[in-house]
Structure formats: C-alpha cells, structure tokens
Amino acid sequence: MKNGTWLNEPTSWSLQDNGYLEMVTDQGTDFWQETLYGFKRDNGHFLGVTTADAFTAQLRIRGEYTKLYDQAGIMVRVDETRWVKAGVELSDGRAMLSSVLTNGQSDWATSPYENDHRDFWMRATVARGVLRLQVSADGKLWPLVRLAPFPVATSYLVGPMACTPQRSGLSVGFSDFSLGAPLGKELHDLS
Q1: Which Gene3D superfamilies match (predicted)?
Q2: pTM, to two decimals
Q3: What's the CA gap between 157 and 76, in Å, rounded?
Q4: Is 50's pLDDT higher than 90?
Q5: Over the Cα atoms of the chain, what is R_g?
Q6: Which residue, 132, 133, 126, 46, is CA-closest to 98?
Q7: How far apart are CA 70 and CA 44, in angstroms?
Q8: Which residue, 26, 61, 110, 154, is most buried by CB atoms nearer than 10 A?
Q9: Which fold has domain 5-154+161-176?
C-alpha cells in the first residue's frame, strides 16, 4: 500500500512501516451510482495501488461498525462508473457481507456474515473480463462471495476502502496486503 494513491484522502490516517494502514472516515462518505436512490457519490476513501491487466489482491480488515451503512473492505476500480467494493457493511441491524458492482449503475448484494465481522479478509481476482470475490475469517479458507463480468482494462486500481454515508468516525485498520498474478484456482478450490 506504500505505492498507493488516495482517492478522497481521509482527514485522519497513518501508514506504518510494516504496511499497517489505519484510517478514520470523514462525514457522509460513499461510493454509489444512481440505482434506487438516484444520487451519485464518489467521495468514499480509497487507497489504490496500480495493477497489471490481471491480478489477485487480498487484505485484512479490522473495524468497529456501529451505524447504518458503516463499511470497509476492498475496492477494484477502473474509473468513477466502473468499480466494485466488497467487505462488511452494517445494514438491517447487523453486519452483512456486502458487494456493490458498478458498471454505469450500482447494484448491491448482501448476505449475513456469520464470522467475526470486526476482523476478516477479502480477496479479489480479475482476469479476462471476470471478477472473483472471496472472503476469509482466517486468511486460509476462502469461500466465494461473487463471480461476475468485469470491465477489461490494461490496468486497475485495487486497495482498501471505507465509507460512512451517515456519519464520520469509523476507525478501520488494514494489513497483510498482497498483490500478484491471478491465482488461477478452480472455482471450488477455497485455498
């Protein structure tokens, strides 16, 4: 993450020598494009690292979610209208595994997250126009979150993301970031 570039740098953040990033969200931050609500937001916090045209990236996320729509996780981005964010989001009174895939307009997919939502891992693989998202409670077993078409590009930005649409002050820590060639594993290989 040391080579990352901020999109909407938060007022409060630090990056330690060991790669541990801590940030505190600013007021009313989010990434969203039109669907249902009709508004466009592109003011969430994202530290993007440039990738090749195909890659696997993963990171560990630790946070204390307390208010509706508090969220943190990983983002893969081409531009303002083509991106995905995935992680934990507080919704309907509980921590949900959430992913928003945007190609002009945003969709939103959620499911209850049954493990410790205050400490989890996310992995994103992009290759040949396909996005594969995985989650892990321990950094070892990686169940599938989402498999979807994704825009083909010569490079992407990938890295930690956090937003608080209805407040400020979510403190989130990110660590164990890695970026490399696509894993190329079979769909049901959860390693």
Answers
A1: 2.60.120.200
A2: 0.97
A3: 6
A4: yes
A5: 15
A6: 133
A7: 11
A8: 61
A9: Jelly Rolls (2.60.120)
